[in-house]
Design brief:
Layout: E1 26-29, E2 35-40, E3 46-53, H1 67-74, H2 86-93, E4 97-102, E5 107-114, H3 118-130, H4 136-155, H5 165-171, H6 175-178, H7 185-190, H8 193-203, E6 209-215, H9 219-230, E7 253-259, E8 266-273, H10 279-292, H11 298-306, E9 310-317, E10 331-339, H12 345-362, H13 366-385, H14 387-401, H15 410-415, H16 419-429, E11 435-442
Helix pairs in contact: 1-4, 3-9, 10-16, 12-16
Length: 448
């Protein structure tokens, strides 16, 4: 059985209700607290798996910036039972794919393979949940790898990640939300093997994890297999979740920077958005799509096509690391615009706010809103059609809300957004007082 949805409404036509989503969902919690989510889909003899651990950038301990990211790398360094690299070799050798990532509220390990590989992959996952090779050599190797990532992706490339790290650091007040999740060299170098072992014991315990599996499997057989492979891993005291809640800012925050690698100026802007459980969260996500998604978006049409002051513009709720459904705490509606030297940040900011204020005052045409919602629905259905993505979405929903089946409600939440909701979201969150921006100019060339 494939993805069970009704036909999508054609773009430009009225969409009275969202197509119904009926992802089959079965959930079981083991005695050690490990939660397993299974979505049966017998359309192809394959499966996707996502192991989600409830630790990310803002949930890592203070004084250990970048530790969640470092540990993502450590999970591929082998165990007392499996040598380094064996995990990926087994999966990829059988025609599968695997990856891992660290985000604000979770770290996930995803894979997709023929269904015959399910038991070996689950064994490998249980093996590295149980214990890693906590050697000084492995730790030093991965400290160096993460630091090289920072050099390549942040320090030695145009713009680095200032549109994420610098804007978030300026906009948010709490350390959990504001610190650089990539990590500082100082904190990374300060980590030792004892720290790594303690982090694994605390955050990679079964009671802090969710396994999502989607594909050509039977739920009861998966539950029995997971019980056999994971059931003897002991639970640990659940790590306390820090208070990551924030209030909206009451005065604009800004910074100006120079960039020795950039050839053109760039402006990054962020507006804080607070509560993923709020209807305003979804309305803001839809508003982000209206403003940024594709050549028909408001900002592309205004600044790239009409004003011709901007060369590239992108953004959205949770951008660039997340979307509306993969955050479990406050986020930002963020954006990056690379603009022409003939304009300036002040002029561009004024134009951006003019567009937003126009929506807050006058709303948007119903046809524009329906077009955007249809595109969002299409994107969401496409994502959960892929088994690896479906497993990941269900595991995240279970980790965040305790209800994996709430993924089936996402289309209805999108479809329910009305023009008045966009007006309310724009007026409440996308204000000058709640705005943070960083303008980055090319550094003056030597001799000029």
């Amino acid at each position: 059985m494939g993805l069970a949805v009704a036909s999508l409404a054609l773009a430009g036509t009225a969409m009275a209700a969202a197509p119904e989503l009926k992802l089959p969902v079965a959930v079981k919690q083991l005695g050690n607290g490990l939660t397993v989510v299974v979505s049966e889909d017998h359309s192809t003899p394959t499966f996707g798996i996502s192991v989600v651990y409830k630790v990310g950038f803002r949930l890592e301990p203070k004084g250990r910036t970048g530790f969640a990211h470092l540990f993502e790398h450590m999970m591929f360094q082998g165990t007392p039972n499996t040598e380094k690299g064996l995990f990926s070799r087994i999966i990829q050798g059988g025609g599968g794919i695997d990856n891992g990532s660290t985000r604000y509220d979770f770290t996930n390990y995803i894979a997709s393979a023929p269904v015959s590989a399910l038991e070996p992959i689950l064994w490998l996952e249980s093996d590295r949940m149980r214990m890693l090779d906590f050697s000084p050599a492995n730790l030093k190797n991965q400290q160096d790898v993460v630091k090289e990532e920072i050099r390549v992706n942040v320090l030695n490339r145009p713009y680095g990640l200032f549109f994420w790290t610098d804007v978030a650091g300026l906009a948010f007040d709490k350390w959990e939300n504001a610190h650089d999740g990539y990590g500082s060299f100082k904190d990374l170098d300060a980590a030792n093997v004892t720290d790594v072992a303690a982090f694994h014991r605390t955050y990679y315990a079964p009671n802090n994890a969710v396994i999502g599996i989607a594909g050509d499997v039977k739920a009861e057989e998966v539950f029995a297999l997971v019980e056999r492979l994971f059931g003897s891993i002991p639970a640990q005291p659940t790590p306390p979740r820090p208070d990551v809640s924030e209030k909206l800012n009451t005065a604009e925050r800004s910074a100006r920077q120079t960039d020795q690698f950039a050839q053109l100026p760039a402006l990054a802007v962020g507006y804080k958005v607070l509560d993923p459980a709020s209807p305003d969260w979804v309305a803001t996500a839809v508003l982000g799509e209206l403003l940024f998604n594709g050549e028909a978006s408001r900002f592309y049409q205004r600044f790239v096509k009409t004003d011709q002051t901007v060369l590239q513009i992108s953004g959205g709720l949770g951008w660039p690391l997340a979307d509306a459904w993969s955050l479990n705490g406050p986020g930002m509606l963020g954006m990056l615009a690379i603009y022409k030297p003939s304009t300036d940040a002040t002029k561009l900011l004024a134009g951006i706010q003019e567009e937003i204020d126009g929506i807050a005052k006058k709303g948007v045409p119903a046809a524009d809103l329906e077009r955007v919602k249809t595109k969002m629905l299409s994107d969401f259905y496409s994502s959960v059609e892929a088994l690896i993505s479906r497993a990941d979405v269900l595991a995240q929903r279970q980790a965040f809300t305790g209800d994996a089946a709430s993924a089936n409600l996402i289309p209805a939440r999108i479809a329910a957004v009305k023009p008045a909701d966009l007006q309310r979201a724009a007026a409440a969150y996308l204000t000058v007082a709640n705005r943070t921006w960083v303008d980055r100019q090319p550094a003056p060339k030597a001799g000029k």
